[in-house]
Amino acid sequence: xxxxxxxxxxxxxxxxxxxxxxxxxxxxxxxxxxxxxxxxxxxxxxxxxxxxxxxxxxxxxxxxxxxxxxxxxxxxxxxxxxxxxxxxxxxxxxxxxxxxxxxxxxxxxxxxxxxxxxxxxxxxxxxxxxxxxxxxxxxxxxxxxxxxxxxxxxxxxxxxxxxxxxxxxxxxxxxxxxxxxxxxxxxxxxxxxxxxxxxxxxxxxxxxxxxxxxxxxxxxxxxxxxxxxxxxxxxxxxxxxxxxxxxxxxxxxxxxxxxxxxxxxxxxxxxxxxxxxxxxxxxxxxxxxxxxxxxx
Amino acid sequence: xxxxxxxxxxxxxxxxxxxxxxxxxxxxxxxxxxxxxxxxxxxxxxxxxxxxxxxxxxxxxxxxxxxxxxxxxxxxxxxxxxxxxxxxxxxxxxxxxxxxxx
Lengths: 296, 102
Fold this sequence. Notes:
The complex is a heterodimer of chains A (296) and B (102). The relative contact order of chain A is 0.21. Chain A starts with 6 loop residues before the first strand and ends with a helix. Chain A has helices at residues 18-33, 59-62, 65-70, 123-140, 161-169, 206-212, 222-231, 235-241, 249-261, 273-287, 290-293, and strands at 7-16, 40-46, 50-53, 74-77, 85-87, 92-100, 106-108, 116-118, 145-148, 152-158, 177-190, 193-201, 265-268. Chain A has 296 residues and is an alpha+beta fold. In chain A, helix 1 packs across helix 10 and helix 4 (123-140) packs across helix 9 (249-261). Chain B contains 3 helices and 5 strands; from the N terminus they run E-E-E-E-H-H-E-H. Chain B has a 3-stranded antiparallel β-sheet with strand order 1-2-3. In chain B, helix 1 (42-50) runs antiparallel to helix 2 and helix 2 packs antiparallel against helix 3 (80-91). The longest helix of chain B is centred in the middle third of the chain and has 14 residues, at 57-70. At the A-B interface, strand 11 of A face strand 3 and strand 4 of B.
């Protein structure tokens, strides 16, 4: 079987708090590993807004915990590596793809005439494949983007005439657009199951983000905020650079949904009662605890 | 004594190493950052293998490599050499060889 021939469960956009969102991913991984539910694609938002940190990060080193509490922003450790992410309720859409490694076969078309199947795609290959679904979704709303290893997607941001002239003055004569990060992704593989989750930025508030992450005072300087703004973009920013009205978040979701399901067999479904019960348990015994969140 | 250093791996991820040394022997090591290790539990093995080592660079390299091979670890966004370099940088903050790694 390949990704295109297996039957997927598609769970429409839901909203949960940080602990339940991470617990649902884990409960679903367990159910997929046991073969109780199909491979699953889910979309979700975070309410209240939250900061998630990578599995290997130190919460104490990375997060301004008091500022998060004051801003009613939850903090949770992910099961996946990668960096700290601010999940603004209004500012992004998150997805998870949960599939058995043995089902994650990519079709190789290469130079040979006959496509062959290869089980257990490598980590970079699987990032590339799933990120391709995001790229396909963004293309539907007129946003050109591409996978940028290790785990990012960058989007083309057209330069204004003024910015283009500045680039030309700096010697970049051919520059009419820049490529900036619009999506970050992370993956784990446990018990024979791949979990990849990631965010697609709809709107970015760099100042808010910096107020919640622990960065050296020297880094909060306007200069650094400008540097991040030069590196990171969002669907709204790309639309503005293209001189058109921002598309709605609903339109972004529709486009992503189409990008993720295109060419696949899928049924719209919900989490099973068993998954929900397990997720509620995991939220309490793992994701809400200091033992987990402050383990590094 | 406690030591710490941070490296931004070129084209890779951020790596922070904190350690404690008593009598020329590492008594605790913590490796954190925005990198990836598959499987994730391998981080504990990497940290554990450093404890009890004397502060000799070649010994770090050998031991870390052995754990990576033995536990079939895949490091993404950094390498064994980056861990060693950052650890070395923490232990020898004024060394020319490590300057720039922090």
